[in-house]
Write the structure tokens for this entry.
Amino acid sequence: MDLAFSPAEEDYRQRLRAWIAANSYHAAAIAKASDPIQAARDWQRRLWKAGYVGLTWPKTYGGQEAKLTEQVIVAEEIARARLPALINAVGLSILGPTLVLHATDEQRRRFLPKILAADEIWCQGFSEPGAGSDLAALRTRAVLDGDSFVVTGQKIWTSLGNIADWCFLLVRTDPDAPKREGISYLLCDMKSPGITVRPVRNAGGGVHFCEMFFDEVRIPRVNLVGPLHGGWKIARSTLDHERSGLSGVIALENGVERLWRLAHANREPGYLDRSLRQQAAWYWIELEGLRYLGFRALSDQLAGRQPGPSASVGKLFASRLRQKVAKSMLESAGPLACLTKKSPHVLARGRLVAGYFDALGYSIGGGTSEIMRNVIAEKVLGLPRSSGGDE
């Protein structure tokens, strides 16, 4: 495991910081734009044209063919500068790497450049009512009819479902096969007739998720990724990409720093509760553990190995740390946590309560904490396979 970046990589980091300093005002303008979705697309396209999106993807499909370490540096610096997440994050971090590994050349040429330029925004259609933790129990069916699949069923907890142009989804194509063997991986145009999208408001008041209904939606067979009935292996690859990465560590680092600033802002100068100091120090220690786990996963990827169970370890502990930090921020603010942003005494723009509820969702999104524990138990500790859920 290599814990240091080379001098050339540090030079790359400095050039990137200079570019961010000169261009970050475009990202800051997204929130105030008359069309924030289009402004977010424009920001991602600007980053891509500058060579900071799709770093490890092949140049043939619009990527940079840069080293994985440079991709990590870009993710770190974007998080450190507190720039907004790229609007096509699902396509960039989850679907794109999957297509590079498993799609046909025609599919790669068709979809990858438009993912990079944010011309087409993607969402993920995996979870279903009754098939979230136990993903292989999904019931959305696809019947092959000529050159098309006819898809009927429901998906839920779909991020970006209300603005996505395309969706990659798992469907059951062989209802008689063992549950992990009768699944296929399809790419669906969200403008297809028969699709209904309903936003789901979360406990924090935001609308980050949607439920989607497919009523005999026709998807061309050319949009099948990998072999028919062979979607489970591809889904596993997708989930590994979803759970790995060092950028989340930087986002957590920003959260611990916000807690530290909030703790000082809410008290007399020079005074800070001892228990809060100990909490913050312990969170930072956990953060460093996650950072080195991320370096370990990075070293595996540089050596050509999949992240494997280390991604599940990182996902489980990062979710818990995010929730602990959010809870400490609430406790530190006390009654002031309930103030809205219109109050002159508001803290953290009135987002503390919503931030706490948002943090709870990290135990579910991208694979529940129970599934992460199952993966760790089976693949790290060598315990027998659970009779419940799938990874």
Notes: The radius of gyration is 22 Å. The chain has a mean pLDDT of 86. DSSP finds eleven helices and eight strands in the chain.
